[in-house]
Design goal:
The structure is a homodimer. Chain A is mostly helical. Chain A is built from 22 helices and 6 strands. Chain A is elongated. Chains A, B: Homodimer.
């Protein structure tokens, strides 16, 4: 983190040399935070103090808006150098963000090799292994010795993370084996690569979804995963830092979608317009769907006018029943998403949820009877009993819906995170209201309480 | 993954030798899944086929119940070997799970060195860096040459992940520098460690919370992080595979707590009893709190009896307002939790949320007026207008609560994930109901509609 002293020194544009040394020695992400925090007109000044390597690293950590601003204000030569030295996957991401005109100009100035690497990555669908992989990795041909392999790794590019594994391919670039730097290091230099490398290569196809990639790497504790095309040719690798980002991004999506935030990638600092875009459609959809629940109440207005305490009790079981449903829904979606449970476990999961649900239903039903006694008059005690019965039934329905909906979605190969919580509460309210009001109305007609 | 063929071969206890070869060559986690899937009486048979290293690895991937079962049924010698070769952090975790009597017996049979390592880790609080670290790392004393360092790393333990970095300490074990295997490998053997190692060591104190550790390692893309005690002495390291697990665990906690699942670590396959334990208390608490919202309605029963359409409209704005609140709450909690935003951004966040909230409020208010026309008779049109006003107000309150509650919690150093969604919907319902019914009652008295 940067000290106040340094901030001041920049604000006076005084001791620029000292600032330059400091900025070039700090971790790139901290420099990124520092530059982001500067007033707009000073960002380019600070950025120009960075040496080539640091500039490239820092650039990768800057947010979208600041990057675009710098692309506009830096000298063409410096910009081209940065773009040329970026990792191909990061470059592809940047090109996705920038206006098409600027991208075209930048692409023209890339070396043919780097242009090819970027085009390859941009050719894959978003959210797949092909899109998140990097094309910077160490490939060894079969037949090399350990000594030759080590020399090759020594010459490999500056990116430290990609160098702890090397991949052995045949003459057609087909992936055959994997070998770790450690294995190479601790073998005799004359040994042949094939003899020390491992044949059991865990790999991903380019079209594999990024969340599956992340789960695979998590499962086998891999620092890097090779990516192959349909012909089993090595085309890139995915590194563990990407896995960390993917897992966090997927968790954010799960959380937000459950809460009815459609986009799944909103941040507190997103623009108000993008917030409205990702939230309002769901809200209006929920209101639209809820017309069903409210319409279920409408025909019973005579009943409500006769027993207005119903309006006191109904929100209570609606709120509680909704919570029961969201609990089951959340636990099920999360378990499926992290791979703790699979749709094959459906019966096992449902059994556990239903047993737990039965206990919960009894407790909540009883609580409902007791609590609603607060508002029912002695003549209305039967309403409390019915509210308890509906509370219990509603809880069981809630548990069943919350468990089976996401499992059903997975079986139909639809992302279960698309089922938002509000959708489930709306369904539960509709069922609960109809059940309760029908029971009460029938009782009224049988008991002839209606005035 | 295991083929059907192998399953059959075991079920016939036929070609045990082939099964043995296969099980010892497969990735440990796959063997773990295989053994877990076997009928209970066959698990120990399959486990005994594993060689020592594989047995230790597989044991670490088995679930709690199966481990306990094996501890009971395996020969003491085999069990002791496994316990002795486990990584100290995994062993500490196992001891946490097992009955105290068994732990005591196992600890007595550990070598003094391993016993010390386990005791050290168990001495730290759960959820801190000290508890998740491993004590297996490579430590180099200042003054060594690169060649000497490499020999030392060559002798280091089988655990591949811990060997890509080595830590340089002074005579008092104080952490001074860090050096990567790659740096060592590509330097002259006679060079002195101090000259090639880096002085900028990112490290954690033993008491640092595991989620902070994970965020730190994520921020700097580290494969391992050294852990030091209060005197800055190196006591362990945390590896990137732990980070992946911690981040996933924290995300699960965030998701579940938001949904009102208290424990935060429930899985679909948890026992019904533990499900009830982690869900029912919240449900009862929510019901208890909701007495406030329902009691707010109770005094207005005369109003409801006079205008029963209120009971049709109220659930609609309660459900929608609740969703608005949970959207803001979720986005804010998640942004704070992944470090996209900090409490210092309060005003910025609130401004963005309020602008978005204003747009949303207007749209929802208007939608409410239009939708509620379905149920209001021509004489009740004014109820629709009021419902729209309350919907809009409630949305703004929802956004404000959803944003400020978690930020306030963070400022007070309380985990914001403790604010569950149902808590917020309960507060919103109470406010909305009081507002709406008061407005309607006043209008009634002014307009003299009450019969």
């Amino acid at each position: 983190m940067l000290t106040q002293e340094i901030r001041t020194s920049l604000s006076e544009i005084g001791d620029l040399n000292r600032l330059k040394t400091e900025l070039n020695e700090m971790p790139a992400i901290d420099v990124g935070d520092y530059i982001r925090g500067l007033p707009e007109e000073r960002r380019a000044i600070a950025f120009r103090l960075l040496n080539k390597t640091q500039a490239t690293d820092v650039f990768e950590y800057l947010p979208h808006e600041v990057r675009e601003e710098l692309v506009g204000s830096l000298h063409n030569v410096q910009m081209c150098h940065i773009i040329e030295s970026m990792r191909p996957d990061d470059r592809a991401e940047l090109f996705d963000e920038l206006p098409a005109g600027i991208v075209k100009r930048l692409v023209q100035q890339l070396s043919p090799e780097e242009r090819q690497a970027t085009a390859t990555i941009l050719g894959y669908d978003e959210g797949t292994a092909g899109r998140v992989m990097t094309t910077e990795y160490v490939r060894l041909r079969q037949g090399l010795t350990v000594g030759e392999a080590l020399s090759k790794m020594r010459l490999a590019d500056r990116d430290k993370e990609t160098v702890y594994y090397a991949y052995v391919t045949d003459n057609n670039r087909k992936l055959k084996q994997v070998v770790s730097l450690r294995q190479l290091l601790f073998s005799i230099p004359d040994a042949r690569i094939e003899d020390i490398a491992s044949d059991r290569v865990i790999k991903a196809r380019t079209e594999m979804l990024q969340e599956e990639v992340a789960q695979l790497m998590k499962r086998y504790d891999l620092l890097a995963l090779p990516v192959v095309d349909r012909e089993d040719r090595l085309v890139g690798i995915i590194t563990v830092d990407d896995v960390v980002d993917i897992l966090e991004q997927e968790a954010t999506e799960d959380i937000q979608r459950l809460a009815g935030v459609a986009d799944g990638g909103e941040s507190s600092l997103s623009s108000p317009l993008s917030k409205i875009k990702s939230r309002l459609p769901w809200l209006l959809a929920i209101m639209g769907l809820y017309i069903g629940a409210s319409s279920a109440i409408a025909p019973f207005q005579t009943t409500i006018a006769a027993v207005p305490v119903l309006a006191v009790v109904m929100p209570l079981f609606s709120n509680t029943g909704g919570t029961v449903g969201i609990q089951s829904l959340t636990v099920t979606i999360r378990s499926l998403s992290v791979g703790e449970a699979t749709p094959q476990d459906t019966l096992k999961i449902l059994r556990k949820e239903l047993i737990a649900g039965l206990g919960t239903a009894l407790a909540l039903g009883l609580a409902m009877v007791i609590i609603s006694l607060i508002w029912t008059t002695p003549e209305e005690r039967w309403v409390s009993v019915m509210a308890g019965l509906v509370m219990a039934t509603n809880s069981l329905v809630a548990v069943t819906l919350g468990t089976l909906l996401p499992i059903g979605f997975v079986r139909l190969k639809i992302d279960p995170a698309l089922i938002s919580g509000p959708l489930v509460t709306t369904m539960l309210d509709t069922i609960g209201f109809i059940l309760f009001l029908t029971m009460v109305t029938i009782s009224l007609n049988v008991l002839h309480i209606i005035p």
